[in-house]
Amino acid sequence: MAGEKDAAAQNATNGTGGNLEHLVPYEDLRDWIAETERLGELRHVTGANWQEEIGMAAEIVSHDDGAPAVLFGEVPGCLAGSRVLVNIFGGKRKNMTLGFPTDLGKVALSNAFAGIYHGNEKLIAPRTVDDGPIFENVMQGDDVDLEIFPTPHWHEKDGGRYIGTGCYHITRDPETDSINLGSYRVMLKDKKTVAHNVLPGRHANLHLKKYLARGERMPVAIVVGGDPLTFIMGGCDIPEGVSEYDVAGGLRGKPIDVVSAKVTGLPIPANAEIVIEGYVNMDRMEPEGPFGDWTGTYTEKGRVNPIIDVAAVYYRNDPILLGFAPQRLPDEYSRYRAIVRSPFLKKDLEAAGVPGVTATWCHEVGGSRMLLAVAIEQRYVGHARQAGHVASMCRTGVDANRWVIVTDSDVDVTNLDELIYAALTRADPAEDFDLIRGGKAQKSDPRLPPWEREVGNLVNSRMIIDACIPFHWRDDFPEINQPSADTLKRAREKFGYLLD
Ligand SMILES: Cc1cc2nc3c(=O)[nH]c(=O)nc-3n(C[C@H](O)[C@H](O)[C@H](O)COP(=O)(O)O)c2cc1C
């Protein structure tokens, strides 16, 4: 296997034009766990219950980038050998997950990922094989029992147990046959039933409409424990018609092995941990949720969504459920979104003709949407406003943005202290704050009045903060009281030991 992995190594161009080795060092979740163990970032917990303890522990570790991944085993009352894994996206393992050297900081990692994601447009289709570990255990028809798995009740006020958090749906376009992978939450209803939450516009929803127009039920397979890279692709905004399988294969430099699910024939990863297969039942709309949202709130009291009639469940021996439940921000989910989305904000600004953009960051505390930061080398009066308004309304910014802060290139926009200090000292609210009304909100926006949400009037306002030194009197702007780079270097050399 090592040879195959070496063969998959590829050069990746990072955002600064340098070359970095890109190698995804795992095939499946078990390889990933072994790599994380090697990095010293995995903790094992036995005996924690699904009713509240796994959720409690997940909450604590998910806010801290330095906290380990945790593998829970021996969950009382559940299938012997079954496990739950949480907090995959933190520490050095997030670099490993995306296939990059573990010494890259988050900005370099983010740029490196954007480099391969965009720069390497190689798509590699999956390879169909006859068999795989996913078929080690098969439950079909009356034998289906989803309650054997250690599905946690993640948050105190959730409306149920969520088996699908670190998961993705596999659906087929009935007209083109193209396969889509998309991450949508899945709630356990009973032994044989789950409910899911696929929002309008999602590719699985587009597929569903086509099946309904033909008078057919939509087949679906849901991977609730799979390799992290493919799961991450399921949450990325990949154009309709391009299969996330092919993108993940391209990033690995080799095809993903799939087997045909026994009832629907959908291609499922041969080495997945647990796969649920069935049909979306539009005649059974049932309560789904509430579930803690990506905004860190219980914005909605729950939804009414279609259930899925489960026809079969496949799982490996000692299966592992992958958990990725959102928490109050910042959390694991927002860490991952900040890293994969921030470079796209820069690309969008450049594509719109905004010059001199030196850095962008879609902040974790805003779930990578609500707070966007942009650094520029100012070139003309109005440049900062241009950058701010475009950032708020471009493809990456348009959904659910709340504040954009544009500042000068001397500010590290990834550092909240530096960013807010710049806004406090360089922006005068009456002069430098612009409001935009009628922006595109999401239903999950906690500040959206319930009556507007009810009627679908999903609009918000945004604030653009021009935190750049005023261009036309920049030479008179007070200097910051900080040592020169040379003095700072000498101070560190002489007195750095004081910080040890
Ligand atoms: C962990 C996670 C959970 C998500 N939950 C949902 C969800 O419940 N419903 C939804 O419509 N989108 C959800 N999303 C967002 C979609 O996965 C995302 O928009 C993705 O691009 C959808 O894939 P598609 O474009 O192929 O439909 C979630 C994303 C992640 C990473």
Fold blueprint:
Layout: H1 2-7, E1 10-13, E2 19-22, H2 29-38, E3 42-46, H3 53-62, E4 69-73, E5 83-86, H4 93-98, H5 106-119, E6 127-128, E7 137-140, E8 161-164, E9 168-172, E10 179-182, E11 186-190, E12 193-196, H6 203-213, E13 218-225, H7 228-234, H8 244-252, E14 257-260, E15 267-269, E16 274-288, E17 303-315, E18 320-322, H9 332-351, E19 357-362, E20 371-376, H10 383-393, E21 403-408, H11 416-426, H12 429-432, E22 433-440, H13 450-454, E23 459-467, H14 485-495
Parallel strand pairs: 3-4, 5-18, 6-14, 20-21, 21-23
Antiparallel strand pairs: 1-2, 4-5, 7-17, 8-11, 9-10, 9-13, 11-12, 12-17, 13-16, 14-15, 16-17, 19-20, 22-23
Helix pairs in contact: 5-9, 7-8
The protein binds flavin mononucleotide.
Residues 180, 182-185, 197-199, 202-204, 235-237, 324, 333 line the site of flavin mononucleotide (FMN).
